[in-house]
Write a structure and sequence with these properties.
Chain lengths: 254, 192
């Protein structure tokens, strides 16, 4: 983000990001008890996307070291559990990769315990696993983490409540509008049908998009199983029509 | 817009402080930077109880109203003005947060008017299945605030008031901005 063309003479033409409706979980989702006192009661007010919304921070440079993407080598010893590779691309809905964007993850250990003071699940902590990773996507929007498959864990939302195994993902994209925090799940988890957080997403097909795909080709022989998961952030007019010269100077970004 | 279907949101859950805070997150600029201000406040729920497991993120223009971003059609800010523009602070057990930054400048808006100086804010917490978004405006910008297209679209003065920080009685460099997720004096949130 160092070179910019000179300012255009007049008019402020900004990209316009799509606004998904019915995609994200309703904030008031009674099955997830913590929403009761935290979900706003008023509908959010729709505002025109201005300069603050169509720009966003460029984070990562000087903040992320390559080693931050390997959650299995952050301590003196190796963490217990099933070693896995989680990789995929960060894209916009136009199918364009989002390069150089920060991806942050956090997760429970193999026993389903977070290294967090509030987590009192009676499962062992692993002194060799903090459960935190960061990386910056490459020129093709790809991220890659090496970690341990997290365990399922109980929570007190309702009797006999268990969260399916998941990894928390935080994404920035390149605009404030694209900011997304979500969770990646693993294929064939028997807990999906019982989980009010997973099922808070109204469209069952959209829920499936949070489930990673096992890929034997990503698996490293004698070392780690491979899972692939792509993340799609909101696209904008001007990114979708990249090839058209009429997209003007925005097309020069890539 | 057609194309790839979007990835849905999920809550940050109760353990976000494992992964998201940075040591320098709350300091958009170092505290001894000339002109630095501190914005502080509390995140509270529908009963007025503190939310101790939330995260506040801010994004804003620099003092000249510029963004170092290729989609800002006005071009790059001047040399030597690197400004992160982004702040993040987890909430404390009493629901409090703080952000140390510079006051943003006013901005041209797409409709030809001007936006008053503001920060965009994302709020994350257990119990929020998606972030909620609000804005922080400044109390001593009456004229600019009156012309701001977002503020002026809110007809109820009490609702509009939830978006304007309070000046500190003693310290001109401090502002107070609390966020009420629900109920009486609920903060205005935006669909951006």
């Amino acid at each position: 983000m160092t070179t910019h063309p000179p300012s255009p003479p007049a008019g402020l033409v900004l990209p316009s990001y799509e606004r998904p409706s019915g995609l994200h979980p309703p904030l008031d989702s009674p099955g997830y008890r913590s929403t009761a006192l935290r979900a706003p009661s008023q509908r959010p007010l729709m505002i025109t996307q201005g300069l603050t919304e169509i720009t966003g921070p460029a984070l990562g440079e000087g903040r992320v070291a390559p080693a931050d993407a390997d959650l299995t080598t952050q301590h003196a010893g190796e963490p217990l559990g099933e070693r896995i590779i989680v990789t995929g691309r960060v894209l916009d809905s136009g199918g364009r990769p989002i390069p150089d964007t920060l991806v942050e993850v956090w997760q429970a250990n193999a026993a389903g315990r977070y290294q967090h003071a509030v987590d009192n699940h009676p499962a062992p902590l692993d002194p060799n696993f903090s459960g935190v990773g960061r990386c910056v996507t490459d020129s093709e929007g790809r991220y890659r983490f090496v970690t341990i498959k997290p365990g399922a864990y109980p929570w007190r939302n309702h009797p006999n409540a268990w969260r399916p195994a998941h990894i928390h993902f935080s994404l920035f994209g390149r605009a404030f509008t694209q900011r997304l925090v979500t969770q990646m799940y693993f294929p064939d988890d028997p807990l999906f049908e019982y989980d009010p957080i997973f099922n808070s997403i109204p469209d069952p097909k959209a829920r499936q998009r949070l489930i990673s795909r096992f890929d034997i080709n990503l698996t490293e022989p004698d070392w780690a199983l491979g899972y692939e998961w792509d993340i799609v952030l909101r696209g904008s007019a001007g990114t979708v029509f990249e090839e058209q010269p009429a997209a003007g100077r925005r097309g020069e970004r890539r | 817009m057609t194309g790839l279907p979007l990835t849905p949101s999920q809550t940050v859950g109760p353990y976000l402080t494992i992964g998201l805070p940075w040591p320098d997150g709350p300091t958009v600029v170092p505290g001894d930077t000339p002109g630095a201000i501190t914005i502080t406040g509390r995140l509270v729920d529908g009963e007025g109880a503190p939310v101790p497991d939330g995260l506040i993120e801010t994004w804003q223009a620099d003092p000249d109203g510029r963004f170092d971003h290729p989609d800002d059609p006005r071009g790059a800010p001047g040399q030597g003005t690197a400004f992160r523009g982004f702040g993040r602070c987890p909430t404390a057990p009493d629901g409090s947060y703080h952000i140390v930054t510079l006051r943003p400048g006013a901005l041209p808006s797409p409709d030809g008017g001007r936006e008053a100086p503001h920060l965009d804010v994302s709020v994350f917490a257990r119990g929020l299945l998606d972030r909620v978004v609000t804005r922080i405006y400044f109390p001593d910008e009456e004229e600019a605030n009156a012309d701001d297209p977002v503020l002026s679209a809110i007809t109820d003065p009490a609702r509009r008031g939830t978006l304007i920080a309070a000046a500190d009685a003693d310290d001109k460099s401090r502002f107070h901005f609390s966020i009420r997720l629900q109920g009486e004096h609920e903060t205005v949130f935006f669909d951006v």
